[in-house]
Amino acid sequence: MEINGVEIEDTFAEGFPIKIARVLITAISQRWAVSAAQEATGFGTSVIGCPAEAGIECIVPADQTPDGRPGVYIQICNMGYKNLEMSLLNRIGQCVLTAPTTAVFNGLPEAEKQFDTGKKLGYFGDGHQCDIDLKGRTMCKIPLMEGDFLTEHFFGAVDGIAGGNFYIEAQNQAAALTAAEVAVDEIAKRKGTITPFPGGVVASGSKVGSKYKFLKASTNASFCPSLREDGTCTLPEEVSSVYEIVINGVSREVIEEAMKAGIEAACTVPGVLRISAGNFGGKLGPHHFHLHKILQ
Amino acid sequence: MEINGVEIEDTFAEGFPIKIARVLITAISQRWAVSAAQEATGFGTSVIGCPAEAGIECIVPADQTPDGRPGVYIQICNMGYKNLEMSLLNRIGQCVLTAPTTAVFNGLPEAEKQFDTGKKLGYFGDGHQCDIDLKGRTMCKIPLMEGDFLTEHFFGAVDGIAGGNFYIEAQNQAAALTAAEVAVDEIAKRKGTITPFPGGVVASGSKVGSKYKFLKASTNASFCPSLREDGTCTLPEEVSSVYEIVINGVSREVIEEAMKAGIEAACTVPGVLRISAGNFGGKLGPHHFHLHKILQ
Amino acid sequence: MEINGVEIEDTFAEGFPIKIARVLITAISQRWAVSAAQEATGFGTSVIGCPAEAGIECIVPADQTPDGRPGVYIQICNMGYKNLEMSLLNRIGQCVLTAPTTAVFNGLPEAEKQFDTGKKLGYFGDGHQCDIDLKGRTMCKIPLMEGDFLTEHFFGAVDGIAGGNFYIEAQNQAAALTAAEVAVDEIAKRKGTITPFPGGVVASGSKVGSKYKFLKASTNASFCPSLREDGTCTLPEEVSSVYEIVINGVSREVIEEAMKAGIEAACTVPGVLRISAGNFGGKLGPHHFHLHKILQ
Amino acid sequence: MEINGVEIEDTFAEGFPIKIARVLITAISQRWAVSAAQEATGFGTSVIGCPAEAGIECIVPADQTPDGRPGVYIQICNMGYKNLEMSLLNRIGQCVLTAPTTAVFNGLPEAEKQFDTGKKLGYFGDGHQCDIDLKGRTMCKIPLMEGDFLTEHFFGAVDGIAGGNFYIEAQNQAAALTAAEVAVDEIAKRKGTITPFPGGVVASGSKVGSKYKFLKASTNASFCPSLREDGTCTLPEEVSSVYEIVINGVSREVIEEAMKAGIEAACTVPGVLRISAGNFGGKLGPHHFHLHKILQ
Predict the structure, then answer these.
(1) What is the pTM of this model?
(2) With a cut of 0.95, is the ipTM above it?
(3) Buried b or exposed e, range D12-48, using 16+ CB within 10 angstroms
(4) Contact residues, chain B, for A144 at CB < 8 Å
């Protein structure tokens, strides 16, 4: 299979289950909503070493938010609802309540699982907090130095999928990275998914396990272009750099759409040679995304 | 005291000791260096609820970095060297090693305290890592899917100061926030300090303690403009919004310079009425920054 | 009439006829498409002193462009088709053909009026240019140092409207400007209109004519807050700054939608006191946009 | 000669004399100063088809400007002082006076040639303008809807140089473009020069003349990678994309420094194969910049 002259390998991405909370942040301007979202979703690439996985999902226009201000949806992901609840409380409490002009709304109001994070945040008001109604939503109003902060009482969470992914193999680093940037930009225009790594891109795709017992993951040696001499690297000769795009999402469908949009966009960049994907032979997770099926 | 017609209150900011590590991140372009730095310093506003305090210190031109590429200095701060070492390992390992095209260098090579974080990161290479020399610096080279990642073996840390601050009191939120943005921009052009909150700005200045026993900090009620009716708020009548700029730095001097630059810039914005600062009567920390002295 | 507590004056904006060409620029990434678009639409605020009026209309995802790459629509406006044709040739030739990785497509393929600008640009190929077909569109391929540049042969233009507008009156400059930024951001998310002034905002609203015979337009003195002492300024006492948003568009409908979205967004910003609009009592143009009708 | 493994061709760039005016724009924030500067310097790549050449020179901190606000230096260039004076009046009048919160200062106060552009702009005030002193500078104060606009009376201009340049030849477009971006970023950190093309980069390097008599310049065919079959292209086989960085500056020295910084930065990007430069055998201009001399 080829797109725009780029080979699509006949392989699959392997995802695993994760719990995902979704929060809508609004602010006085899009710029400040994004600023809060960046802080709240930072240090959030992989649960292997970060306290959560997190990212910006998409920007929404002012007329699609409850308070008529520009908005940004973020996702916070963790293994198990208990960890997720703690992540939600700390990240909203430390990075959104503290951010200029923000308000926060439940991004999954119809989910079965609902955390009362907003109610808990209210205690920061030291007794001055109170409840108000905003177009049918119960909000806690907390007096701050900047004015009042509004947070919805509840935030929903669902069983989502982490680790959707594809690889961009290219003639050199700049081509692979430009394609990765373009792919991430297009994914960011769609709802339901995040690309939690820095700038949406993974430089250091990994395999499960390592020769060191204390390490759960290590470099994906067979895809490392500088390990060619001893035959460790099995990449085609002309590939000298590979980036991975990792995608988390609230459903299988949104991940498939994001993979399709990202791959098609990546294939327009000169110097991209092949698209592949990362899997662990089924050892890691039950969710398999076959490239050829998704791109039909 | 007045600057540009803005009253400078005769008060002081109260800082407290913190341990600070400083890392230089370089990348293929300034944009990608900043992207890595943002991820690595996210979820890092306050040690009250974040695993560390962290921020971007400044951008440096390509001719001022060891590998001739554009660079960004970041600071990671924590209470005690043990916590700091863990923060450093996780944040560099998860957010910079994983970021496209980055290399990392010791930002405090002359500090007495040095962590061997780079050596530890090397294990990700699964045996394929090796040491190289880059202009007198010992670097670990780790093969990745994108190419090779370089990290210096050691990263220095020092006894620094957290909680340098000033308040911007204004006629309304937009004026206070514009002044805060301008102040943060000017501080970012100087070396040695970070403003760890979202976009560099704190919307929710706090006091130590709370009426709820489980809460260490709560809203600074006497500076909350919406708590005027019962006399809780003691702000001047015409002030309707207050932002705080919190500054961490590697020395008293750099914090004083940052406060001076930030306050002077803030005072150029129409609608700013008064500059104040946050202290806890000496209860929190030994480092006092008197506004009138700094601005002489 | 009030929105969110902000008074909407019972007045109207007065627009005038202008010719508008619309061009789709695609590039290797959204960032580079925007970069070309900024250069091509610069020095383009008002036909009073600029060679054309021009601006970025909106960004489109890669799957909505003929070559599957990220795109940006721009508009170039002038008085009369002859001037417009010259503007189109110079701005595309000097600012888009010269910009990295771009291609240009007809943004109004169904318009009656069509300029053969792409054919003319072809001569830059010095005989090496040739025609190709791209999904039914006839494109001229011009060999460049970066690779090949593609331009569609024809670019359509229509009778549009310039000078749609509204005023944001606020307590101070920062509030008015923040509201203006928010309004412009929301307008930019819609198709069909541009806001040609710097950052989309006019600081210097003008009246027709002047006491100096050589000047066609001069400061709108009755809206200048600093001219209160002698009664020249007729603004409410509490207004100290006013920004105007000027909107050009391909039809009356798109301007009305843009005005509605912009005004509603502006009214969410604290410190905004009143929305008004600029007209010249019908002297300037036949297109009247009554605020109360648009905001019904 | 080689830098970082990249060949530096033994050739020279050929510049020509141009008149350059330099203006300092300040604004309420760096963002708005840049916004005004972008509008004022747009449609300004080459005097062949633009009414002037123009660009952003550098950003300066608030403590280095006369009014203590963030600033941006721009340059406007034209053939002959008469054309330049007209460009200055139109671009400042239409794109900076109209831009939110700006003030403008003379960027070359010690030049012999001084235009009274600020005095002329004053007439927009329709008789309400007046002169004030700002730290020894005579400024015209013009009442606007946003508040008062300040412009210095005079703006200086000098005999400068246009057309300083170098070529980046690379394995593919993404590598060449990434290197170009990095080079432009580093040049922008230095004073005295501009890179007037879109994003600082030229995609379409040209030769003087053409087979069509009506065309003064045409594609530089011998550097066009797609013209290899008939031997027109004389680039090395492995080069598939070339970008040119064009530099204007107020003196020979600043252009040499900019070329050096830009070339050295470009040579850090993987996939860059050779640096060259554009000249016309001495036909175009008297200013020759030999790469090997500059990079010594």
Answers:
(1) 0.97
(2) yes
(3) bbbbeebbbbbbbbbbbbbbbbbbbbbbbbbbbbbbe
(4) 203-205, 219, 224
